[in-house]
Amino acid sequence: MLGVRGAGRTVEVLTLYSTQSSGNSYKARLMLAKLGRPFRLVEVDIFAGEHRTPEFLAMNLEGRVPLLDVDGRFLAESNAILFYLAEGTPLLPDDPFARAEVLRWMFFEQNSHEPGIATARFWLRQVRGGRELRAHDVDRWMEEGYAALKVMERHLSARRYFVGDALTIADIALFAHTHVAEEGDFSLAAFPAVRDWLARVAAEPGHVDMSWRPGNAAADPALA
Q: Is the CA virtual torsion 24, 96, 161, 212 positive or negative?
């Protein structure tokens, strides 16, 4: 469990709206588990349209998961949630340049990594008939995903983590989709530095896999 630097931070009541199979939702669950933060987990079935109900859209106009409820204030976007939760912890450096580097790799994850790797996994693995529906996109996903993996391989060939010499939220953001990239038809065979990095992240204290749920996980009937 990671501690919080400093003292006096208010202990918020947290509820996480999440989809278990979502890599973005996994980022938030993994982060909360590593910090040892108690939270209520509400499963949102996006395939049943629970993210498009009036009740959910009232909390997040974009209708996306994950969504973090912090004492009645709602924070969307997985990497924004990571950044918020990491404040005051070792997962977000104090040094301004290092913090900017963390953000650089989180922007990379959203703009260069997720559009190929995560999108391919969603359509090819999770959506029934998705391969046929999006057959014209597969080559583009492969090109974009492998381009991102090559950037990661070059960066990690000379370092253990993405920023500095310790785990940060940049690693958590990139781990979530990379460790299941093969579910989207990507092979990691040609990326030994990436594979070694995945093993290091998974060996870090407090790590949980994508199937993990806290003991107080619940379904919210208001979303049905």
A: negative
Q: DSSP states of 92-127 as a string?
A: S-SSHHHHHHHHHHHHHIIIIIHHHHHHHHIIIIIS
| Percentage of the chain modeled with pLDDT above 90 | 89
Contacts 24+ apart (CB under 8 A), 44-50: 44/17, 44/18, 44/19, 44/223, 45/19, 46/19, 46/22, 50/223, 50/224
Please report, to the nearest 10 degrees, the dihedral formed by the alpha carbons of residues 179, 184, 189, 190 taken in order. Answer: -100
Distance CA 224, CA 215 (A): 21
β-partners of residue 68 are 16, 75
Per the DSSP assignment, residues forming a β-bridge with 182 are none
Q: Please say whether the beta carbons of 49 and 224 come within 8 A.
A: no
Residue-wise pLDDT for 140-182, tens only, equals 999 999 999 999 999 999 999 999 999 999 999 999 999 999 9
54 CB burial (10 A radius; 0-12, 13-18, 19+): exposed
Q: Tokens 């004492």 belong to which residue?
A: 71
**Burial category of 12 from C-beta neighbours within 10 Å (exposed 0-12, middle 13-18, buried 19 and up):** middle
Q: What residues does 41 pair with on adjacent strands?
A: 16
Beta bridge partners of 40: 15
Q: Six-digit token pair at 96?
A: 């301004």
Per DSSP, 218 falls in state: B
Across 47-56, average pLDDT:
94
